[in-house]
Amino acid sequence: MSDLHEWIETGGGPHLLVPEELLSKWRGIDRWSNHENPNDQSDYARACRITSWIGTVRCGDGSATVLAGDVGPIAWINADGLDGGYLVQWLGIDNEADILPALSSKGLEEAFAAEAAEQGMLETGGSGKLKLIDSADIGTDLVNQNCSISLEPGRYNIHAGYFETETLMMVVRKMVKL
User: Rounded to the nearest 10 degrees, how much is the dihedral formed by the CA atoms of 110, 112, 117, 120?
Assistant: First the structure.
């Protein structure tokens, strides 16, 4: 990895995108015992049971978005001319500079239209501020890597797809304001 973008890693579990207003409600590994046990209703266990690229779990009076399905660091990339942006998950990237041209390529749009692509919704909360965190973290005590994302408050459509070229292997989640 290089220094072009801020890459957020996890300890092995999924990433979580949570509205700033709900962050203190996320309890992560608090009371976690085993995510394979359906009786374990800890926040981390519920997040780990999501196996798709986009999932939703209850968080306080709202919801948080689980980014699972593959293991690899994720970076937020603002998009020029798009009311939203991209969450890019690094699976295999030879040259990080190849990411930006790929985000505007016809191939990526085809990946979003592919049968394996996924779609979801996200509500930002009143501030429009989101945190990208390790789902194991407790919202009031973030000990792992995290980053802040500022968007216009509202609802966003999320498209997720796998994109590969000779130099890139990545899962891209495109967020667009409704």
Answer: -170
Confidence (pLDDT) at 38: 77
Which pLDDT tens digit goes with each residue over 20-35?
Answer: 999 999 999 888 667 6
Residues paired with 84 in a beta bridge: 176
Mean pLDDT throughout 11-27? Answer: 96
Query: Quick one: pLDDT at residue 2?
Result: 59
Helix %, strand %, coil % for the chain, to 5? 15, 40, 45
Of the candidates 8, 15, 4, the one whose C-alpha atom is nearest the C-alpha of residue 134 is 15
User: What span, in angstroms and rounded, lies between the C-alpha atoms of 118 and 139?
Assistant: 27
91/71 Cα distance (integer angstroms): 7
Amino acid at 131: K
Instruction: Write phi, then psi, for 113 (nearest 5 degrees).
Output: -95, -10
